[in-house]
UniProtKB/TrEMBL annotation:
Domain BPL/LPL catalytic positions: 32-205
Reaction it catalyzes: octanoyl-[ACP] + L-lysyl-[protein] = N(6)-octanoyl-L-lysyl-[protein] + holo-[ACP] + H(+)
Compartments in which it is found: Cytoplasm
Classification via NCBIfam families: lipB, PRK14342.1
GO molecular function terms attached to this record: lipoyl(octanoyl) transferase activity
This protein's name: Octanoyltransferase
EC number: 2.3.1.181
Record's GO cellular component terms: cytoplasm
Enzyme class: transferase
GO BP term (any one): protein lipoylation
Amino acid sequence: MIANNIIIRELHTQPYMQTYQAMHDFTLDRNEQTPDEIWLVEHYPVFTQGRVGKPEHLLHQTDIPIVATDRGGQITYHAPGQQIMYILFDLKRRKIGIRDIVSCLEKCVIQTLAHYDIMSYAKAEAPGVYIDHKKICSLGLHIKRGCTLHGLALNIDMDLAPFNDINPCGYAGLQMTQLKEFVPQINRSELKQLLTNNFINLLTN
């Protein structure tokens, strides 16, 4: 699908490292004319550690694999039932700064949740989106050759228990929440449409 010259790809459920490698390959191969892309994906259970991640934020050893990445931030958890939106955007070409793109990511989630009458907010000192002091969306980016990799992870309908084995995003005692605690029946197609539309509108208006 193409919207505003942005290609949107639905990748369904993929192993984390396969998508990670594909993001880097795409970024290395792209040029000044390559359209920006949004990838919608879910991952099989995996802990991912940011490039400055501290090992002490893994509280318990489990059978879930731990992968080192080059995104910002500390450790987090991905699994089916979490909607991930990776953004592969040329910031140089769009003349957008990193803080602006982070703000667009946070606002697109806040607007999406508002559609379901859920009040959420961002924190300047701790990127992501929160509801009543609980985190519902994590985000982390990496900039390579002026282009973004990675993106956001919005908890929809997943097993949150593995978050207890880590300090989520490096914050001890941080509780996680998810959309199904507020909206029992979630139309996933509608949610993905809202998320991508809100992001594109924020970015292009």
